[in-house]
Amino acid sequence: MTFSGPILLRPPDPQAFAPYGSFILPPDQPGRRAFYSEALQPRPPGAVPVLHVNHVPASTLPLTVTGLERHPHAAQCFMPLDVARYVVLVMPSDDNGLPLPSQALGFLVPGTTGVIYHADVWHLGATVLDRPGHFTVLMWRGGVTEDDVFRTIEPLTLALPTIGASARKSAENEVTT
Q: How far apart are CA 110 and CA 47, in angstroms?
């Protein structure tokens, strides 16, 4: 099925994102901790934790997406180290395990918020806006089964909603603060 977007990016919405993973937010009070360990479970048999830092070149909106990835057996966590804003795109699979672009959700995420993708979720690779960025990435690797699946898809476009100039500036400010 061909999907004709664009997919409009929205602010992070933990409830809408819940079927695909978690947004990582700092606690709202000093001295508190927010735990996300459950989101990294279950550990694939024989896998070990892998922690790396990446360097991501900047992209601009509107953005054309032609490829997705998923990790069938392991969750994947991205913690911004030095990121202005970034794009999160997720979608479910059809009965054959292929991505369903017609049900895609896109989010415009500030660099103060991390993301954990559940295992087996189709998602866009790390994509930053405004300037190059760096993420710390944590996931399970190894084990008995290959866990990196990449898929080319029909091009789809990610864009900001079309709103008045003052409302757009306000919305962009919300995502950067």
A: 31
CATH 1.10.150.240, applies to 7-176: no
* pTM of the entire predicted model: 0.86
d(CA 97, CA 94) in angstroms, rounded, equals: 5
Question: Domain limits of the chain?
Answer: 7-176
Give, for all 177 residues of the chain, the pLDDT tens digit.
455 669 999 999 999 999 999 999 989 899 999 999 888 887 888 888 999 999 999 999 999 999 999 998 889 999 999 999 999 999 999 999 999 999 999 999 999 999 999 999 999 999 999 999 999 999 988 776 778 899 999 999 999 998 654 455 555 555 555
Distance CA 100, CA 90 (A): 9
